[in-house]
Amino acid sequence: MPQTVESRPQTCGFCDGRGVTWKKDRAASDQDESRACPACFGRGCVLVRQPAQVCPDCNGWGRIGRGLDTTGGEFQPCEECGGMGWQDAMPLV
Ligand SMILES: [Zn+2]
Ligand SMILES: [Zn+2]
Q1: 29: helix, strand or coil
Q2: Ligand 1 center to residue 48 CA distance, Å?
Q3: pTM of the full predicted structure?
Q4: How much distance in Å is there from the Cα of 1 to the middle of ligand 2?
Q5: Residue 54 CA, ligand 1 centroid: distance in Å
Q6: How far is the CA of 53 from the centre of ligand 1 (A)?
Q7: Is the pLDDT of residue 64 over 60?
Q8: What strands, in cross-sheet order, belong to the sheet with 45-49?
Q9: CA–centroid distance, residue 3 to ligand 2 (Å)
Q10: How far apart are the CA of 30 and the centre of ligand 1, in A?
Q11: Distance 86 CA to ligand 2 centre (A)
């Protein structure tokens, strides 16, 4: 008998559960520019179908260009998972 598909909240990959994101990753002085995370809409977590699997495109980071884009500009959300970092995820809204 197949089990019911279950979804549970998981930490958002794009903001690592903070619910906000910054234009610059390292900018303590740029906190005024913080804004709600575009992947989870500021909730810090997303609903993921169980068993939860990280997105293979971004390895759960929810962003591409990691390590390349820390000096300026914004991280681009992973297109595959919409920045959430998980497969079969949807925002908690
Ligand atoms: Zn988020
Ligand atoms: Zn992804």
Answers
A1: helix
A2: 13
A3: 0.76
A4: 31
A5: 14
A6: 17
A7: yes
A8: 7-11, 45-49, 89-91
A9: 26
A10: 18
A11: 6
pLDDT for residue 76? 80
**Alpha carbon of 56 to ligand 2 centroid (Å):** 6
Distance 39 CA to ligand 1 centre (A): 5
Please compute the mean of the pLDDT values over residues 51-68 and round it to a whole number.
84
pLDDT of residue 31: 52
Best CA proximity match to 55, nearest among 16, 92, 82? 82
Evaluated on CA atoms 38, 18, 42, 26, the torsion sign reads negative
Amino acid in the structure at residue 65: G
Q: How far is it, in rounded angstroms, from Cα 60 to Cα 84?
A: 8
Asked if 74 and 90 count as a contact pair (C-beta separation under 8 A), the reply is no
* Integer Cα distance of 2 and 58 in angstroms: 30
Nearest to 13 by CA among 65, 82, 93, 72: 82
pLDDT recorded at residue 3: 63
